[in-house]
## 1
Amino acid sequence: MTPQVGVGFNRNYWAYLEAFVRDLTKSFDDVYCISGPLYLPVQEDGKWYVKYQVIGNPPNVAVPTHFFKVVLVKQGSDFSLGAFALPNKAIDNSTPLTDFDVPVETVEKAAGLVFFDKLERTSVTPLCSKTKCSFK
C-alpha cells in the first residue's frame, strides 16, 4: 500500500484506469495487471534529481512520484501488452489515457523489475492497437 493523491488521482483518473482494466475482461479471455509505485527523476538546473515527499510521524513513508500499470491480455493464442505511467498528482479527466502509454521496458527499467519474462515479446502486439485505450 502506498500513498496516492486523493482528489483528481486516486478517486478520479486512477480509478478510471482501474475500471478500464476491469472492463478488458469483457473483451479478452485473460487479463493480467501489475501495478506499483515509481520514483522518477526530474530535471532542475541541467541536473537530474529524484525528489519525493515523506509523510508520517515520524516521517518514514515515501510518497511515490508516479504509479504504473502493466497490462497483458490474451485472446486465443494472441497476446497484447501495454504499460501506463501516471504522475501521482491530480490529472484532468479530459487527458487521454494514451498520454501515459509508455513502453513496458521503460517501466521495467524504472521499477527494477521484469514483467512476463517467459513471454516472447516479438510476437506480442501493443495493447492500445488491440483495444481503444480510453475511458469516460
## 2
Amino acid sequence: MDPKKGINYLVDNKLLEWSSQPIAEFLYKEEGLNKTAIGDFLGDREEIHLQTLKAFVELHEFSNLNLVQALRQFLWSFRLPGEAQKIDRMMEAFATRYCDCNTDVFQSTDTCYILSFAIIMLNTSLHNPNVKDKTTLERFISMNRGINNGGDLPNELLTKLYDSIHSEPFKIPEDDGNDLTHTFFNPDREGWLLKLGGRVKTWKRRWFILTDNCLYYFEYTTDKEPRGIIPLENLCVREVPYQRKPYCLELYNPNKQKIKACKTETDGRVVEGKHQSYTICAVTAEERDSWIEAIRASITKDPFYDLVSIRKKKVINQAPQD
C-alpha cells in the first residue's frame, strides 16, 4: 500500500490525527510497519511530510553517542530511499539533530552531514563483496580533511569511527515478505519488450520493470519473482540496428566486460548471466526511445557522492581565509 494512502486511511477512520507529531510517533513506535514505506513517507517534500520528518528525527536521542552509534540507531528506524533529494533532506535532518544533542563535537552541521555520508560509503566499501578496492584507514582520514569548517577532525575520532564500521557493518532493516513485489510499487518504467537470448539467439517476450537502477524482466506480469535482473551500474545504452527488428536498443559495458547480471533457470536455480550485451526490441521507435531515455536517467552515479561533493565545496568556500 502507498504509505500516504495508509496514513490517510487511519486518519479518515479517526485512528490517527493528521498532524506531524502523532504521525511521527506512530511511524517511530508502531511495530511491524514496512521500513521502506516509512522512508518513502518521511522523504516526501510536502509540508506535512517535512514536519513529520523533523518530529521523527527528534524522537531519536543521540546524546553522548559517537556518530557511528547514532547512524546505527537512525538507519535502523527506516530504509533510506534511493532518490538523492530525499536522502539529502533526511540526512540534513539527522545532522541537525545530532549536533543539537552533541554541541561540542562538530563546528557545523555541514561537517556532520559530510562525515555521515563518508561513513555510509565506508560501510559499503568495507562490506560489499563487489567492491574490490577497500578503503583503508589512511584513505578515510585523507578524504575527510578540511571538512570541519576548513580544519581537520582529530585522527583519533576518525580512527574510532573507522574501526567501528570495520568491525561491524550497519544493519539495514529488511521488510517482511520473501518476494520482491515491494520493489516494484513505483517503477520508473514498465512494459512488454522482446529480449534476445544470450546463448540461444531467439526472441522472447518479457515484462520489463525499470526501478532502483536495475532492469528486471518477468515471464508474466503476475510473477512475484523476476526471471532475470540486470544491474545498470557502469552500463551504457544505445540504439542498434537488427535484421527484421527495426526498434532495438542495446545494454552494454563500455569496458567490454561481461555484464554482472543473474537469471532464474527453468529448474529454479539462480545463475550468473553470461551476456556481453543485452539486445531488446520495442514495438515502435517512440517506445524504444522512451526506454532509452528512462534507462539513461537511471544509470547514474551513487547519489551520495554528488551530495557530499556539493556540501564539501560549500564548506571549503565558507572556510575563513588566512
## 3
Amino acid sequence: MNNQSFGRGGGRGRGRGRGQGGNPVFSRLGASTDQNGNTGSGQAGGFSQPGSGVPFGGASMVGQSDGPVQVSIKGCRGKPEASLFKFLNMKVERPVNATNVNYRGEIMYITVPSMDIAQELLKLSGIRFYGEKLSFQIKPHPVKFGTGTGSCSGSSDSASIRDRLIALLQTRADPQGSALDLSGLAHDPIIQSMGAGSLQDSKLFEAILVLAAQLYTNVITINLANNGLSSLRPVANLGMHFPKLRNLSLMNNMISDFRELNCLSESGSK
C-alpha cells in the first residue's frame, strides 16, 4: 500500500445504492445533530424559482416571542443537506443557521434562531429544490427527538444518519468509484451537522467505512489527509472493508509512531 496523496479537485461522482437498512453502526452514532447553513457546496442546475404555494401557519405565529423556533420542511428528504442550506441562505439573503436537524418519515425538522427567520422560510413554500416542491411549517409545539450525541430515538434517526453519510460519500467519490477523498472531514458541513464530536471517535469512521464499502466495491485509493488522526485505530478495518486498496494517504495527521501502521496490517491491509 503506497502512501500517496491526491487532490480534491478531481471529478467526483454520485454514489449509487443505499446499502442495507438497520445496521447497528448507524444507530450507535446517536441522533442529536447540528447544521451550520452558512457553509457547504451547492450543485448547479438544481434550483428553480418559487411556485405559487401559500406559506403555512404564518399569520398565527406572528405574536410568538422571539427565540429558537422549530420548522418542518417537506420535499427535501434524500437531497444533499449542504446544498439545501446554502440554497435557503441564498433565498432568505442571510444565514439560516439551522441546528437540531432530524427526520421523521419524509419530513425534515430544523431549529432556526428566531421567528423572523422562520417567517422568511414560510414565504418560500412552493419553491422547487432539485425538482421537488418544498413546503415549510412552523411547529408551535416542537416535535421531540433524542438528545445528546450518544443517544438514539429510533429507526428514523438511524435512517437520518445513513442519509447524511450517503450524501457525504456522494461528494467524495470519483466517477469510477475507485477513489475516496475522505480528507478534512471535520470541516465538512455534513459531519458538522451530525454533531458527532471528535473524528477520533472510531464509531464514526466505522460507520463511514461500512457504508462506503457497500456503495463502492472497487476502491483502490483512499485519502485520509488532514483528519487530525493521532492513531490509526479508528480506521484499522480499512483492509477488511476495501480488499482492493492499494494507495492510502495519511498526510498532515498527527501520527508520530510508525508502529501505528501495524494495526492496518493486522486487520488485512497490505
## 4
Amino acid sequence: MAGKAFLESALQNRTMEAKESLPHKYTMDELEDVKTRLKETVEWLEEGITEQKKLAKNDDPVLISAEMKARGVTLQNHVMKLTKRKTPTPPKKEKAKEQPKEETKKEEAKEEKAGQSEPASDAPEEPKQARAPEEL
C-alpha cells in the first residue's frame, strides 16, 4: 500500500531531520492522521473479507468494488496532498546573512555615485511640435 510506504518514509525522514536540526516537513498530528485513516481502511477491508467468506456464493457481496475504490482514492488524495507540500527551508546561518548586507551597501553606494554624475529626469520628454510658417 502506498499509504503505508509514505508513513514509513515520512517517519524515517522525520528522524533524520531531527538529527540534523532541520525543520520537519510533516507534523506528528498529520502523520498520526494518516496512520489512523490507514488503520481504519485496513480494518474495514479485513472485516469485509471475513463477512464475505461467510456468505454463500449466490448471496449479494458485502464488499463492493466501488466502495473499495472510493476509500482507496480518499486515502490516496490525503497522502498526495501531503507529499506535494514544499519542503521547509532550513534557517540561514548568521554569517550568510551578514555578507549580502555588505554587498547591497556597496551596490547602493555605486548607484548613488552613478546617479550623481547623470542628471535624473523623472518626467518624460515632450515631443517638439513643428510650427506652422507665419502667413504674410
